[in-house]
Amino acid sequence: MSVSVPGLENAGCLMLFGYNPNASHPIVARRVVKAKEKGAKIIVADPRYIETARIADLYLPLNNGSNVAFLNTFANVIVNEGLHDKQFIDEHTVGFDEWWKTIESYTPDRTESITGISPRLMKEAARMYAHAQPSSVLCWGMGVTQQKQNVESIHTLAAIACITHQIAKPNSGLAPVRGQNNVQGSCDMGALPNVFPGYQKVTDAAHRQKFAEAWGVPTEKLSDHEGYKVSNVGHLIEEGRIRAFYNFGEDPLQTEPDTRKLAQQLAALEIFVCQDIFMTQTTAVADVVLPATSWGEHEGTFGACDRTFQRFDAALPPKGECRHDWEIIADLSTRMGHPITYKSTREIWDNELRALWPAAFGATYEKMAGLGHAQWPIPTLDHPGTPDLFLGGKFTTPDGKAHLIAHEYKLPTETPDTKYPLILCTVREVGHYSCRSMTGNCTTLSLLAEEPGFVHINALDAEARGIKQDDLVWVYSRRGKIITRAEVDDRINVGTVYMTYQWWIGKCNDLTIHAVDKRSATPEDKHSACQVELVDDQLWAEQHAHEIYMNLKARMTQESAPQQIAPHQRGDR
Amino acid sequence: MSRHIEIEPSRCIACGTCQAACSLGHRRAGLQAQPRLSLYQSREVVASLTCHHCAGAPCLRMCPVDAITRDLDECIRVDEKRCIGCKLCSLACPYGAIDFSGTPISGVAGIEYHTPTFVAAADPVLRWKIGVYSRAVKCDQCVSDPSGKPQCVTYCVTKALRLVETQQTPDVPTAEEGA
């Protein structure tokens, strides 16, 4: 994010594009409410009338899968209405003329049939966004990234911020609010297939040399090419290019698209190792399970989406055979021939991150003690941290300027037809988190929402199928068929149904298409075709859903049984 | 003097923290864990709703075993031990603020292996489970909590919920209208 999360409160306009903070980040949603109370204008562009749409000044109900067409039109209107900042474009960007050649044809009259947004509404939103004082922020989430044209949308979002000069000043710019609490932190630490800690590319010989020296290994031992991305693992197993898979802190059989196919692919592995805190559907099929500690049992740092590092402490000692993730990794590395002898997370932080990444050098454990934090770039010990990026129009490109890039709109991979007439879009809900391996083990949260989960369906679509609230329904696609409960929802659009990731029985990822973007490998989770049908015998359906859930729970209990041993019976580690 | 819980819908973000806090607070007090607030969501409004502790209190007059009482603080409470689960109060309540819940035969800490006996789409009043003694569950303004404050108000993330104390008991129906 070019802006800090608290900074959102001080913006003059927040435009939420494919982002539902109330479900994915309630704490950010609270900031949006506060911004509104401070006088900020709120624009929501989303196919669903999300919670924030209720308090928004403008709501733009765009069609599913029309992001690039919408954004190109939004940019077109900005230029045609003269809302752009010519001076900023001349001084701080390159490629405007080339960019405009693509954008020029996306007039609101021409694209209305694709986006569903009237020219009048589009113009009103563009004016509100471009004119807002002191700043506007474009916030987006998975509604942008889990689409076929994800990278394309982000290029255009960035271009919109640049041409209007709603970036490069305090509390402005771009806010891709990331999913998990530490997803940014993991990327910062180099948990990506193409970079070392601090986004230092593995393809750069100077970076390889620097890390080889720090780790005391010959430079040629470090890989000089990008590795595989997790969403491609299944297909790579099929092609015989991956034979061993070490998976930790993920439940791909719940969260990856087309899970039935993935399950077959994982079965072909020669060795499958899983590291997790609970037994999940994925760990249940692993050859080896390494039990790790939960957030309450270890200490360390989190890296938030706005580049803020925070420290946290352990509340409890590890239980049973559980060990800290870093201990397991260090032990494995030592046994595989490269000794890692760290004694604490602080040593790792100082040696692996601060010493090797200049932008984080000032983020000391002392600075983050208690409720303290450090926001990178923070290059020196006395640096206050950087809430806002690109101030004064200094961008991190080689020439210091923003490069404007435009793309033509393309249709999603799978579109509805007569057999599968509904669009299936995967979303988040507030009650359960991600794959539910954690929140599903919390009694209170299970009480509020339980299996077999829900499919949100518009009242008109429900009525056409004879479906009432809470009825059990079949949902099926080209990939699979599942049973779940209908939630008749007047906040969603006709023709699309919405399901959340986490249900084991009403598992939407048995239905989703596996189509990944070539550059980011992000799957197109927001657009598959499906059909919904009422189950004729509702009482049978209740019993059936319950039975398959109980069978799954029993299987997982059995899989985790070997762990239920008294401490004194445990062998040496 | 009476108190009731009020909501400011423009501040509510539908996060459900009120329900989780309600459930946890009552479970800790040894009462049913069923949350006593429901989250109402329409296109225009979102609000968590609970008992109004109204003046008329038709629930109180319906109860055949006097399990429902109006306490000195004007709060309407159910004695979950005395309740026989007849559901008359729920039928009488004009706000739909009374729900039913019971402890399964496997016990408080046990894993529930029940066989569904009802269709979930049916009205909550029509639901039943084999071997479960279900009883009326409603807002008691967390009288048993050491803080003496309703947990939903304490934990509301955006301060959308608040406790209002008034000299008059709020809203109708009165005894005559509600009868």
Rg of Cα set of chain A = 25 Å
Task: Please report the distance between the alpha carbons of the first and last residues of chain B.
Answer: 24 Å
Q: How many distinct folded domains of chain B?
A: 1
Mean pLDDT across the residues of chain A is 94
Biggest beta-sheet profile of chain A: 6 strands, mixed, barrel
Main sheet overview of chain B: 2 strands, antiparallel
What's the β-strand tally of chain B? 8
| CATH topology type of the largest domain in chain A | Rossmann fold
Largest interface here, residues on each chain? A-B, 31 and 32 residues
Stretches with pLDDT under 50, minimum 5 residues of chain B: 174-179
Name the average pLDDT of chain B. Answer: 84
The CATH architecture classification of the largest domain in chain A is 3-Layer(aba) Sandwich
**Beta-strand proportion of chain B:** 15-25%
Helix content of chain A: 25-40%
- CA-based shape of chain B: globular
Give the class of chain B from helix and strand content and strand pairing: alpha+beta
Strand percentage of chain A lies at: 15-25%
- Number of H/I helices of chain B: 5
In the sheet with the most strands of chain A, the strands line up as 16-20-17-19-18-21
